[in-house]
Design goal:
The protein has two helices and 30 strands. By secondary structure, the chain is mainly beta.
């Protein structure tokens, strides 16, 4: 069950956060992040088979490492095809005897990366605190990678990363946050082409707690969100890395990027802000506005998506809203209907807007031209990601289906 969202005020601070502070205390959290209810019967009868074919990349280097894939472009690839006659397939499954709860996904042209928290089948059957913690992202995590080639075997790059639920690809690396105390977070990375198991490299120690979202803005510049609210810029091109606070809100902040712009909203605020410029310091808090919702509904977005021509905002009023890239007032783009469930994630390519919904939700593709909607998956999905090769999501349901990573190839 979700806690009631509190009122949110979005404001521009644009002040230097005061540098990098190393935290040395042991991990202890004062706040537990609100997550969807992990309730529901445990289905022990579902299949959890490993893929039969081992990984065998033709692009392996002399040390066995994968050749680096190209990063995704800032705007969706207009040449990406559609998938009218294809069906979803399982791209990866957890190791034998385990289930995984998958969180955020990122890709390059060769591989899919994601953060997951794992428990054993025995712990799943016990239905105790280990299940609840891993389901809600409060346990130790692993960073996973699988080649996009059919039949590839997923690899675990690193393990034992406290409360990691988000990753971002930039340059030659995959980055992620790790909780190191109740008020401090470490940013770590490994090369995207490292030979598993990989040794994490420290990047920065931050005096902020519970970084729960990380994404690439531009070369060497990452956006991260603290405790589902404050937004920061992390510049990894400097030594030490620079940290700038961009926005502050109460929970629940959502952000997306396209081209050279960062768009930021919050579920109880009807305005969307835009940060732009080389350092994303030019911030316009009221760049676009959502019309008033029906009585009792949150007035802001729960998830945002952008494609360099428009920004899309999904609210829990069973609608998706759209505004052109020059801002203004959002118009109602799609009446999605209550069947979709609680929307939590958006991704966009040249042809479709993809939405993911947790609990009794799934993954949906909406055609940009016709606005017709296709259900790609029914289940409990916390993140969806699209690139020029396909669409990717993981099953989060508390059963032995948990941890299956799906793709719909183009």
């Amino acid at each position: 069950m979700l806690v009631k969202m509190r009122a949110i005020h979005l404001a521009s601070l644009l002040a230097l956060a005061g540098g990098i502070v190393v935290a040395c205390s042991t991990y202890a959290s004062d706040d537990e992040q609100a997550r969807p209810d992990a309730g529901g019967a445990v289905d022990a009868a579902a299949s959890n088979d490993e893929p039969d074919a081992p990984s065998a990349s033709d692009d392996a280097g002399p040390d066995g490492s994968l050749a680096l894939g190209a990063l995704n472009p800032a705007c969706p690839d207009p040449t990406a095809g559609t998938f009218p006659s294809r069906s979803k397939e399982v791209l990866a499954t957890p190791p034998a005897g385990e289930v995984e709860f998958p969180f955020e996904i990122d890709t390059d042209s060769r591989s899919v990366f994601w953060a997951a928290q794992a428990i054993t089948i025995a712990q799943l059957d016990e239905n105790g605190s280990a299940v609840i913690d891993a389901y809600n992202g409060l346990a130790r995590s692993r960073i996973r990678r699988v080649s996009k080639e059919p039949g590839a075997q997923a690899e675990t790059l690193v393990i034992e990363q406290q409360r990691t639920t988000t990753i971002a690809l930039d340059g030659d690396y995959v980055y992620w946050p790790v909780a190191i105390s109740g008020s401090a977070t470490a940013i770590r990375r490994v090369r995207r082409d490292c030979v598993a198991p990989c040794t994490p490299e420290p990047v920065a120690d931050l005096d902020v707690a519970a970084v729960d979202h990380l994404q690439r803005l531009a070369d060497g510049k990452l956006f991260f969100r603290r405790e589902n609210k404050d937004g920061y810029l992390l510049d990894v091109t400097t030594t030490p890395p620079g940290v700038t606070k961009l926005t502050t809100t109460n929970p629940f902040l959502t952000a997306t990027t396209a081209g050279s712009d960062l768009f930021i909203g919050a579920s109880s605020e009807d305005t969307i802000g835009r940060a732009s410029g080389p350092t994303f310091s030019a911030f316009t808090p009221g760049w676009a506005k959502l019309p008033a919702p029906s009585s009792g509904q949150e007035k802001g977005p729960v998830t945002l998506g952008a494609d360099c021509t428009a920004v899309y905002a999904a609210r829990w009023d069973d609608a998706v809203w759209r505004v052109e890239s020059d801002g203004g007032t959002f118009s109602r783009w799609l009446d999605a209907g209550a069947d979709l469930g609680q929307l939590v994630s958006t991704s966009i390519d040249a042809h479709h807007v993809y939405l993911a919904a947790w609990n009794a939700g799934g993954v949906y593709a909406i055609d940009k031209k016709t606005r017709s909607m296709l259900t790609l998956h029914k289940g409990n999905v916390w993140h969806v990601f699209a690139d020029k090769d396909g669409v990717y999501w993981g099953e989060h349901e508390r059963s032995v289906e948990a941890g299956k990573l799906y793709t719909l190839r183009r």
